[in-house]
Amino acid sequence: MIFLFAALSVLLCSVHSYPIEGLLEKNDEYYGNTVEDDDFSVSTLIEKANVNVGKNLSEPLVMFGDIAMPTGLQNADPCTARGCLWPKSSDGNVYVPFRISNQYSQRERETITQGLQSFAESTCIRFTPFNRQRDFVDIRSLSGCYSFVGRRGRGQTVSLSRQGCVFRSIIQHELLHALGFNHEQTRSDRDQHVRILLENVIPGMEHNFRKIQTINLGTPYDYNSVMHYGRFAFSSNREPTIVPIPDPNVAIGRAQQMSPTDILRVNRLYNCNSSASRNDIQPVQQNQFL
Ligand SMILES: [Zn+2]
């Protein structure tokens, strides 16, 4: 499977080197969502950074674009009902220990730390420096951007490659996986909100669009979620793979950071409540607490 994935990664790489000429006109109809605009969508950044994922046999198998699988082929089913949530402290906060590899520059460390701290501004998640806790997220620069879904136990790798993954949107995206969230377009109710055009998907990459029986926490489908892929994710031919319905021109997958719905979901999944200890939050940020 690893070898298969390596082969597919090479394929993915070749897709990004397609000539641009003559292919633009068709996509211009998608306002704010052309192939070129999409260059900065979370999924495009992740796709680009992940061209080498799967080549290193010491790294985990990665599926669904950037989700590490614990063993072989299996669905990234929601595990949050089975105990993969991070534990809640008696003060109402959820402390998630983290360790950042010394591979990063000072500036990269700051970007990552700011990404981690952004969760404290609007949720009860508190990423705290590793201090010999049993379970923790181990942030390292491996061959792409990827994470397991939910708490796996012991040190779990969150890979943020120095080549293309140290951005606020991707840091939040990968840590939302580690907190238990899947991609927005795999939601159980996605067919009411997007059409998946499998005919435009790179052969062998269809699994990235498989639906998951997600727990949606009473929150609406959100095109602006930082967990939503862009319109051209895994496209084999520069035609869209995800088209919103009913209005096909709505921008999707363009989030630069967590949306209000992403924040609401974290707070609902972890049952954050406004009476939790928030001494470390500035008053202006408390207003954003959902
Ligand atoms: Zn992802």
UniProtKB/TrEMBL annotation:
<keyword id="KW-0862">Zinc</keyword>
<keyword id="KW-0378">Hydrolase</keyword>
<dbReference type="GO" id="GO:0006508">
    <property type="term" value="P:proteolysis"/>
</dbReference>
<feature type="domain" description="Peptidase M12A">
    <location>
        <begin position="75"/>
        <end position="273"/>
    </location>
</feature>
<feature type="binding site">
    <location>
        <position position="183"/>
    </location>
    <ligand>
        <name>Zn(2+)</name>
    </ligand>
</feature>
<feature type="binding site">
    <location>
        <position position="173"/>
    </location>
    <ligand>
        <name>Zn(2+)</name>
    </ligand>
</feature>
<dbReference type="InterPro" id="IPR001506">
    <property type="entry name" value="Peptidase_M12A"/>
</dbReference>
<protein>
    <recommendedName>
        <fullName>Metalloendopeptidase</fullName>
        <ecNumber>3.4.24.-</ecNumber>
    </recommendedName>
</protein>
<dbReference type="GO" id="GO:0008270">
    <property type="term" value="F:zinc ion binding"/>
</dbReference>
<dbReference type="InterPro" id="IPR024079">
    <property type="entry name" value="MetalloPept_cat_dom_sf"/>
</dbReference>
<dbReference type="InterPro" id="IPR006026">
    <property type="entry name" value="Peptidase_Metallo"/>
</dbReference>
<keyword id="KW-0732">Signal</keyword>
<feature type="active site">
    <location>
        <position position="174"/>
    </location>
</feature>
<dbReference type="Pfam" id="PF01400">
    <property type="entry name" value="Astacin"/>
</dbReference>
<dbReference type="GO" id="GO:0004222">
    <property type="term" value="F:metalloendopeptidase activity"/>
</dbReference>
<keyword id="KW-0482">Metalloprotease</keyword>
<feature type="binding site">
    <location>
        <position position="177"/>
    </location>
    <ligand>
        <name>Zn(2+)</name>
    </ligand>
</feature>
<feature type="signal peptide">
    <location>
        <begin position="1"/>
        <end position="17"/>
    </location>
</feature>
<dbReference type="InterPro" id="IPR034039">
    <property type="entry name" value="ZnMP_hatching_enz"/>
</dbReference>
<keyword id="KW-0645">Protease</keyword>
<keyword id="KW-1015">Disulfide bond</keyword>
<keyword id="KW-0479">Metal-binding</keyword>
